[in-house]
Automatic annotation (TrEMBL), chains A, B, C, D:
Lineage: Bacteria, Bacillati, Actinomycetota, Actinomycetes, Streptosporangiales
InterPro entries: Class_I_gatase-like, ThuA-like, Trehalose_catabolism_ThuA_prok
Coiled-coil residue windows: none
ThuA-like domain sequence ranges: 33-220
Name of the protein in its database record: Trehalose utilization protein
Source species: Nonomuraea jabiensis
Classification via Gene3D superfamilies: 3.40.50.880
């Protein structure tokens, strides 16, 4: 399995409240979490917004099974060509994890069709992450609930499509709720939105969260043996299949 | 529109904590709520568990567009024949509102296939009822959130099928969440589970709750003009429809 | 109810095979179908791609409850600003009917996130339109199946999100199938894709098809009484709702 | 992985049209198909309706990860106690494959809530099995379409809940369609209905069908590491999680 962790890597170098938690960038911690949990053969690479082509050239995407995407304040600077390349690659089978504020990113909007806007937000809330689909592979080995001591509240209605698979619902200290773990199929690919991940809190260091991320990567990864491309439809005469 | 409100009507005559809130029975208050909100032509009748055939003979069910069902401690005394009659009537087009504890009733299990078991429960919690599907007819005119000062917590995972339409998610004072407004299609009929309705609190007197109940009745009601029964399938020769 | 029928109106003035069927444009026939079936108070207007702003200025969209969209060969000439305006208006509550080839249009892609690409297509097939959700309002009064003597085959997999409400599945003379009537919620609005509508065949003159279109308009229309905007989330202190 | 293939094993010993195709029973062929495709460590056992307790005592079910169920004419003789035992085991995490006519079985009804009734049926039709969810693990390595030379038509509407995951749609020689590969979550378990499997045709000998069955078993199997049981909900004081 080949995984690429993409990060805008801006706040970690700009705001003390973020750099104190993630001095080497969110991507470094996310990468380490996946290495810990995935099979030893997994390759976990990093790509950053600052790299040429945002580090997501065709050769990188074509060699990626699952892409993690963390973006926030600089998402409007992501060039549309890269967004479109990622979108096409997902439709062709790559998995995508949309992390935290990236629900409002260009790539999330392009694949989901919605704005990703939440009704409100607030920093510093504790959060309980509740499982609602207990047989799903993403909750394997994950306690219910997961307690996140401090994070960020996003309030419903959150403008997303109804999930094909609603895995987690969160509650926040202020009483708000969120569909915080949501899976969708898009083309041959899979998309998972995971809400926890506020950059001022050490959420990606929590063992339960790391396990969820790795489970989600496995869920989103394409099958080793894809479906052969259909060659028939529209290429054969009418009634070819009707017995004489 | 013809609506029947069914009630087990036990606790209101047994426990002071309930009779003090609903001295004439939950059904009386539910009926009044619907009369207030539905069109003047709507007929809202009552059927009680203590009546012969639980008040749900074929002539009643055949003349009912939407049935509301409130049951709790005496549900195991509902006879299976009536459960099966209601189930068939739903599959044939009648709407059904499953209220509060009735998520664990025989009729709910029979139509949903799950146990309706919640992970935990607790009396006396305040509850916030959040809208997650803001374009749905059941939330028309309903504020977000609805505040319920005191009710009963049901915790996730709640053993229900993934809703076809997830309309509300609740949070409780203890931090738990619940998919508290859930719609499903079953056969030609529709089923809506609405969690608020603890019998020791005046929840069905709240104006927002009454509006939701009436909206749900309208959503669950069958179309005035049903689909004609199919007469063709399996009754015509192979390839009848293929042009020469 | 205010309905706007939008048409690219190109093939009807270009190809004899189309003008012979729809000499006054597809939009004229669609409009007439809706006038026949909707309540007398309904206003059904027309907007064309050739008009300034494609006939979809803010004042038109803000005054439209449901928009029908038929496009095909000229869709790449629809300006992105109009696409974005329509998208936002749907998220804000307007209904949208995506007709036939418009599943590959910019607006369909923008709202669904997928490419709309089908696996194959072929002209001239007869089609059977089967109901799979018999209690849905869109099939009210519609026989099962509807027989379309000649149309266009689109083959699965069709690249669309799994429908929130799958209403129709079609089979074609060549044995292919299609999810041909699909509903989605997007924001406060609703989207319905209806596949039949090949421009060289008089499909929109068929009584059953006209009834389906009118039913779909009613389904997609926003509630008369929308949900009040939430004012609370994120604006109140922590624990405001927790009882002392 | 431990798999149990359950068969009513009646027609294979009663009707020449069936025994000529499956002289050793459908279960023998199904078992062989799974052994071919699953990992070498998989155990595939057989249980028959004629055995005591229908071969499905608690010790068998507790030791089964996925159960395949083929029943038809004798399903009404399956005792309710066994149905309830299987139902509970699915809710507790066991996978279940509902094969062909078993969509009308007691266990299918008990888990899905619907009747499983189809609008019509007809023997001898050829069938095309089309993929509509191309990134799903059940279609890994499976061509689109799969051609079944002769089988049995089931017509829509088929009375089932809307699938959580609609994988296959079939068309038949007579022009009918069917949602023929449908996945649902129920409790901690998963259910997959696979329509092909008419007993008078060698469908379970087809390589593509055998691959699908094995893929479906893998999809339905519970995670190796289940979610720990929640211990908290309802057992802690109000506001335990709210920061001071």
């Amino acid at each position: 399995m080949k995984v690429t962790v993409w990060n805008e890597f801006f706040e970690e170098r700009t705001y003390p409240s973020v750099s104190s938690v993630y001095p080497d960038g969110l991507h470094t911690v996310l990468r380490q979490a996946l290495i810990e949990h995935l099979d030893p053969g997994a390759e976990v690479r990093v790509a950053l917004q600052e790299e040429p082509g945002h580090g997501l050239g065709p050769e990188v995407l074509d060699d990626t099974d699952v892409l993690l995407w963390w973006s926030h304040l600089k998402d409007d600077e992501v060039v549309d060509e890269v967004v479109e390349r990622v979108r096409r690659r997902v439709l062709d089978g790559m998995g995508l994890l949309i992390l935290h504020s990236a629900i409002g990113s260009k790539i999330a909007k392009a694949l989901l069709g919605t704005s990703g806007a939440m009704t409100g937000w607030r920093h510093g809330d504790s959060e309980l992450l509740w499982t609602v689909l207990p047989g799903h592979e993403i909750v394997a080995g994950v306690p219910n609930p997961v307690v996140i001591p401090s994070g960020e509240m996003y309030g419903e209605p959150l403008d997303i499509p109804a999930p094909d698979e609603l895995v987690f619902i969160s509650s926040y200290e202020g009483g708000e709720v969120l569909r915080s773990g949501c899976g969708w199929h898009r083309g041959r690919g899979r998309v998972f939105f995971f809400a926890p991940g506020h950059e001022e809190a050490p959420i990606y260091f929590q063992p339960e969260i790391r396990r969820i991320l790795a489970n989600a990567v496995r869920w989103a990864a394409p099958s080793a043996q894809p479906q052969p491309k259909s060659t028939r439809s529209g290429e054969y005469p009418k009634n070819w299949w009707v017995q004489a």
